[in-house]
Write a structure and sequence with these properties.
Belongs to the sodium:neurotransmitter symporter (SNF) (TC 2.A.22) family. The protein is elongated and about 80 Å long. By secondary structure, it is mainly alpha-helical. It has 3 domains: 87-199 and 256-620, Amino acid/polyamine transporter I, CATH 1.20.1740; 216-247, no CATH class; 622-659, no CATH class. The model is unreliable at 1-38 and 44-67 (pLDDT under 50). The chain has helices at residues 2-12, 36-51, 71-82, 88-99, 102-106, 108-114, 121-146, 162-191, 250-259, 274-291, 295-305, 308-321, 326-334, 344-357, 364-370, 378-411, 423-433, 440-473, 475-478, 482-497, 505-516, 519-550, 557-579, 593-607, 609-620, 625-633, 639-659, and strands at residues 221-227, 230-237, 240-243, 585-586, 589-590. The protein contains 27 helices and 5 strands.
Length: 660
């Protein structure tokens, strides 16, 4: 910082040269010599030097006249201050890092198996073409078009600005709970850094008397016995005879009794798990330093966090397909069962998987797109990233189910009893699988390091979307204090997240997962976002704006999707979810009513912003109904006029900062 200030002082106090310098005030003035082009370049260079120092530091001379920077120079200064991608590859890798997250690895493969194997790809790709790619393209284009974050973009349809606030609230919930998974992964990573993984045996202090390794159960003495007029399998252990259903395994006991130290229910929140508090703090520190310097720094971080997981996935696939039983697992993953397509749950799973895995509705894509140059071909970028995302999901399925097939082979159990989704896959199935691999600790470290990297870039890109939206909304207050603001957000999110790593934290985690960032909230946000552009602002004017950016009109298919298919899919699946709603459970534990009430509150905390803001803005906007519609529902400006208006407002604010 001191170097930037001294540079500004040096330039501000330099004497005018023969080619026309700057007055001692440090402000650029119009050239008085004939070499105006060179003089103008020096003015802009001087202004950019000054921009590297905080805006509050304006070095002036008491005796020299102060000239106001021109509109063009202020605009250049603003772009330099806000930041932009250093290269196109930075942008693409950042969006890839956001879109490719834990859902690609631990949810998509299981949904394929559960919903008919290869047959699931039919509803998946139909949803992708009819809703996923269109919304992905719309959000990136919207951010690039208006060069502002998720709150400011709704100047295009002011009555829908509540969408931006709803997305910001939902991002806060996402930031709190999603990073907890990474804290668990870091804990397992550190616990794997030893000669052997600690969940191999039942001889640890946290194990119970009924613990038996699943790979050793075939050697147990078991028999059938009539109990309460039904046949029950009884097994003999050193501590006595117990039923087969009462047997536990060291992997599950390590997860529940060592990692989580889980309590009996959400009523018993218990103590903070200090080991997990430490790993959570570590992940938040990493996240902070990934985004604290803005997108130019973030764009460099994703070269590692977005690309290296592919190296790890490839290594794990090569090892997986060489295991016995691997191809049986892959067959279960890909062989189609078309009878499943008649079930509504299959189509609902396809929609929610697309929307979650593509990072839609949270304002993050809008923020990442806003750092692009206006003329960037965002259409091509969107198609590239969507192709990479879905290909990665299918690739991860081969990695996971090769290991699942191996587990089923070793345990002599059907694959249907081994396959799992979510935390069950990451912290139960895979840790159990590595027990049979030579060098178990190495494979465990690689897997959990991969989970960390895959989740980390999704986490800090979501954070970047939230930070961008808030700072763009209040630039005078926050932009020059961005690093402090990010630190405050990280600290507050960490403190709230401690509730998820207490002994009862798993129950809180599941409430947030099932309500605060549920499919209900996401479908609600995406529906209103889609109609705000396609129906209220007007899809034709939006298309004109895209043509101004990329030089040609995209195919008319996207108009059809934005106006018809995407809103219809959102509404249909939203109501299907309501009709088929069942209260969540954790294994056999039923949540009390007040826990469900809290979950509903977290969901409504984002969803209600949209109608509430609509009502408030309509009532506070002066004029009759027709004038209100033209002012806040369907504005008159096209994209070019709207950009000019926004730039004028921004330039005015920038000039006010210079006058301070």
């Amino acid at each position: 910082m001191s170097n930037n200030i001294s540079g500004a002082e040096e330039f501000a106090t330099s004497k005018d040269g023969d080619d026309g310098g700057l007055p001692s005030s440090g402000y650029p003035t119009r050239p008085n010599t004939s070499n105006s082009s060179r003089q103008q370049n020096m003015e802009i260079e001087a202004l950019l030097k000054r921009e590297r120092a905080p805006l509050s530091i304006i070095i002036t001379s008491k005796t020299a006249p102060v000239a106001t920077p021109s509109k063009q120079q202020l605009q250049i200064a603003l772009e330099n201050e806000r930041g932009s991608w250093s290269s196109k590859l930075d942008f693409i890798l950042s969006v890839v890092g956001l879109a490719i997250g834990l859902g690609n690895v631990w949810r998509f493969p299981y949904l394929c198996y559960k919903n008919g194997g290869g047959a699931f790809l039919l509803p998946y790709f139909m949803t992708l073409i009819l809703a996923g790619i269109p919304m992905f393209f719309m959000e990136l284009a919207l951010g690039q078009m208006l060069t502002i974050g998720g709150l400011g973009v709704f100047k295009i349809a002011p009555i829908f600005k509540g969408i931006g606030y709803a997305a910001a609230v939902m991002s806060c919930w996402m930031n709190v709970y999603y990073i907890v998974i990474l804290a668990w992964a870091v804990f397992y990573f550190f616990m794997s850094m030893r000669s052997d993984v600690p969940w191999r045996s039942c001889n640890n202090s946290w194990n119970t008397a009924s613990c038996v390794n699943p790979y050793s159960r075939k050697d147990l003495l078991c028999w059938d016995q009539m109990v309460n007029k039904s046949t029950t399998k009884i097994c003999s252990l050193a501590t006595g005879n117990i039923t087969a259903s009462e047997l536990t395994d060291p992997v599950k006991e390590f997860w529940e009794r060592r990692a989580l130290q889980i309590s009996s229910g959400i009523e018993d929140i218990g103590n903070i798990r200090y080991e997990l508090a430490g790993t959570l703090l570590l992940v938040w520190i990493i996240c902070y330093f990934c985004i604290w310097k803005g997108v130019k720094w973030t764009g460099k971080v994703v070269y590692f966090t977005a690309l290296f997981p592919y190296v790890l996935l490839t290594i794990l696939l090569i090892r997986g397909i060489t295991l016995p039983g691997a191809f049986e697992g892959i067959k279960f993953y890909v062989i189609p069962n078309f009878s499943k397509l008649t079930e509504s749950e299959v189509w609902i799973d396809a929609v929610t998987q697309i929307f979650f895995s593509y990072g839609l509705g949270l304002g993050t894509l809008v923020a990442l797109g806003s750092y692009n140059k206006f003329t960037n071909n965002v259409y091509k970028d969107a198609l590239i990233v969507c192709s990479v995302n879905s290909s990665t999901s299918m690739f991860a399925g081969f990695v996971i189910f090769s290991v699942v097939g191996f587990m089923a082979h070793e345990q002599q159990r059907p694959i249907s009893q081994v396959a799992a989704s979510g935390p069950g896959l990451a912290f139960l199935v895979y840790p159990s699988a590595v027990l049979q691999l030579p060098g178990a600790s190495l494979w465990s470290c690689l897997f959990f390091f991969m989970l960390l990297l895959i989740g980390l870039d999704s986490q800090f890109c979501t954070m970047e979307g939230f930070i961008t939206a808030i700072i763009d909304e209040w630039p005078q207050l926050l932009r020059k204090r961005k690093e402090i603001f990010i630190a405050v957000v990280c600290v507050l999110s960490y403190l709230v997240g401690l509730s998820c790593i207490s002994q009862g934290g798993m129950y809180v985690f599941q409430i947030l997962d099932s309500y605060a960032v549920s499919g209900y909230c996401l479908l609600w946000l995406i529906f209103f976002e889609c109609i705000s552009i396609s129906w209220c602002y007007g899809v034709d004017r939006f298309y004109d704006g895209i043509k101004d950016m990329i030089g040609y009109y995209p195919m008319v298919w996207w108009k059809f999707c934005w106006c018809i298919t995407t809103p219809f899919i959102c509404v249909g699946v939203f109501f299907f979810n309501i009709v088929q709603f069942t209260p969540i459970k954790y294994l056999d534990y039923n949540y009390p009513w007040w826990a469900h009430a809290f979950g509903i509150f977290t969901a409504l905390s984002s969803m209600l912003y949209i109608p509430a803001y609509m009502i408030w803005l309509w009532k506070t906007t002066p004029g009759d109904t027709a004038s209100k519609i033209r002012t806040i529902v369907r504005i008159d400006e096209d994209v070019k006029s709207l950009r000019e208006k926004m730039q004028q407002e921004t330039t005015t604010k920038q000039a006010e900062l210079y006058s301070l």
